[in-house]
Amino acid sequence: MSSLKSKILVVATDLFQTRGINSTGVDTIVAVAGTTKMTLYKYFTSKENLILEVLEKGHQDFQSWLSEQLNSNAKKPSDKLQKLFEFIEEWVTSPNFRGMGFIKASAEFPNEESAVHQLSSEQSRQFRQYISSLASEANIQDADGLALQLSLIFEGAVQAEQMKRGSGAMKYAKKASKILIDSALTN
Amino acid sequence: MSSLKSKILVVATDLFQTRGINSTGVDTIVAVAGTTKMTLYKYFTSKENLILEVLEKGHQDFQSWLSEQLNSNAKKPSDKLQKLFEFIEEWVTSPNFRGMGFIKASAEFPNEESAVHQLSSEQSRQFRQYISSLASEANIQDADGLALQLSLIFEGAVQAEQMKRGSGAMKYAKKASKILIDSALTN
DNA sequence: AAATCTATATACAGACCTGTATATATAAGA
DNA sequence: TCTTATATATACAGGTCTGTATATAGATTT
């Protein structure tokens, strides 16, 4: 991938999270990235296409990092579930953290026919599915139910952490996840 | 309050939730409300002012309904806490439900200097504070912690329920809240 | 050195948005 | 009937946004 294209993606990811997607114009993006609109439209067919690529990249980076960490640091399936929020906290509190794109995108694009909305809700579904598979492997009865509960807490905590860094939301989310997982394991 | 002003508020509340705030122009609002821009700008000094009044009204309606229900249907403080999500579910699944304004508004207005952002995060704080006071009365040690956990679940479930009606999010949110409250009561 | 590829600079068309100005209609009260 | 208050109809100024057109500069290849 061209270095300029990569730079545009990084800058757009940042601006979308800090100023909102709809409120960030392409002029602002190219100015911050130190390039011009002609170059942006060479690598991306439209602003919507740029948004979609930003979402794709963010989601892939997070998912592959997370499953990598869980696979190499936890062996038993129930350990993976227990350590899930430990690693999520590590990700969210890292200086490189730029927010979870799909959470904000689904709020800014509520129209179900929008491609952005469709991708972001698909990513949310995929993440829930991943948690559910961890729960299944740990022999939890209602795996989908626990996955939904954990994803509610996760999305809420990420949003809170984004709005106010160091809000403590992640700490209490971690505690809540422990309680819910324990309760699901003993039932 | 003038009937036209009230009509504009209702229509704007609806459109903001279904299409997004920034994506909804005042022209659309007045067309759906069956009036004109001149009338809208008579009752509201600006679009931002309209957004703020929509948020105020939505929050007041919810908070007064909720505390009314809790005060008349639960006597012991711990009962109020236990029944909190029962009533929230009733509110969210009612046909009149138009979403919780402050959840979406904080996502669409991430700039901390924005008056809309400030109001919506203040409302979020107030709601959390209300839950915390219920927890305190029920003699829960870390009342603020539990309030944060419950509000994370609440905001996540409302957002999920908005995105997909009948998603079952509310049902599992209710279960999660029971588990977390029980855990907090016995510690 | 000539040709080609990539990025820049700049301008602008077309669409949309907020907020206002102007002129008109409608209905109620004096 | 005359006046006053309220709502409508319509047009538009000024701004922002996306996406494109045109011309130019720099660098690499042949």
Short description:
With 187 residues, the first copy, chain A, is mostly helical.
Structure, described:
The structure is a homodimer of 187-residue chains. Chain A has two domains: 44 residues, Homeodomain-like (Arc Repressor Mutant, subunit A); 137 residues, Tetracycline Repressor, domain 2, CATH 1.10.357.10. Chain A contains nine helices and no strands. Chain A has 187 residues and is mostly helical. The first copy, chain A, is elongated and about 60 Å long. In chain A, helix 4 packs parallel to helix 7. The longest helix of chain A is centred in the first third of the chain and has 27 residues. The interface between A and B is large, with 38 and 38 residues. The first copy, chain A, binds a DNA duplex (30 and 30 nucleotides) through helix 3.
Structural class of chain A: mainly alpha
CATH architecture type of the largest domain in chain A: Orthogonal Bundle
Q: What is the alpha-carbon Rg of chain A in Å?
A: 18 Å
- Provide the CATH superfamily of the largest domain in chain A: Tetracycline Repressor, domain 2
Q: What are the segments of chain A in which pLDDT stays under 50 over at least 5 consecutive residues?
A: none
Query: What oligomeric state is this?
Result: homodimer
- Percentage of residues in helical conformation of chain A: over 70%
H/E element string of chain A? Answer: HHHHHHHHH
Largest interface: A-B, 38 and 38 residues
Report the portion of residues of chain A in β strands: under 5%
- CATH fold title of the largest domain in chain A: Tetracycline Repressor, domain 2
Strand segment count of chain A: 0
Distance between the termini of chain A: 49 Å
Average pLDDT rating of chain A: 94
Main beta sheet of chain A: none
